[in-house]
Amino acid sequence: MLFANCSLLFVFSSLALLFITCYLLFVIGIVFTGGEGPEPQKLKRLLDDLGGLLIVAADSGLALAEAAGIKPDWIVGDMDSLDSKNRLSLYPKERVICYPVDKDYTDTEIALALLWEKTSEDAWIIGGGGGRLAHIFAIRDLFERERYPRRWITAREDIRCIDGGDAKNSVLTLAVEQGKLISVFPLGGGPWKTGSKGLKWELDNVLWERGLFGLSNVAVTDEIEINAKQGRFMIVLEE
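The chain above was modelled as a monomer; its predicted structure follows.
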C-alpha cells in the first residue's frame, strides 16, 4: 500500500510539474493577424528578446509571421485572405484549423481563444493596422472584454492596455524617446482614475468620463509611467 501511495504521489507530482512547466513556457501568447505590422527585422528582434512564446497565426497573419522568419505553433481561420494556401502545407495538419467564412467570430477572436485555452496568461496581437476600419474597430473592441489582450502592435503604433482592477497590469512604465506622442483612451464603463509621470500634460487630475480621451500627449522624460488607479485604459504610442 505504501508503494502504491508513493507511485500515485509520483504521478501527481509529475503532472503538476508538467502543468507548471507548460504554464511558464507559455506566459505570453502572440496572435499574428492580417493587416499592417512591424517591419520584419524589428519584429524578429522584439520576439527574440522574449523567448518561450506560444504563437498563433490568424489567416493572413501567417504571411506576416513568416516574413520575420517566425513559424507559428498553430494556424487558424477561414483562410480567405491568405495569399497562398500552399503556405499551409509546410505545417502539420493537426496544427492548422480551418473555419468556414460564414461564422460568428473573427479569425483574431478564434486565435485569442486558442491562446487562452493553452494557458497563456498574457496575450498580444501583432498586425491589424491599415485596411478596413471595421476590422480595426473589431480588434479595438477585444480590449473591452473581461479577458483582454495587453498589447497590440501595428506598423505605426504600439498599443498597451492597463486595468486598475488587475494588480499585475495596472501600471505601465516605459523607456521612451522624449517627444514621443502618447494618447490615452478609457475603456469599459468606468469609473476611471489615472496618475502619470513624465508627460507634458500629467493625468492625475483628469476627470475621465465616457467619450473623453487624451490625444497626442508628449513624453518629456526618457521614462514615462501611467497608472490606472481605477478603470481600464488603452495607451497608444505612435512610432
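The CA atoms of residues 86 and 148 lie 32 Å apart.
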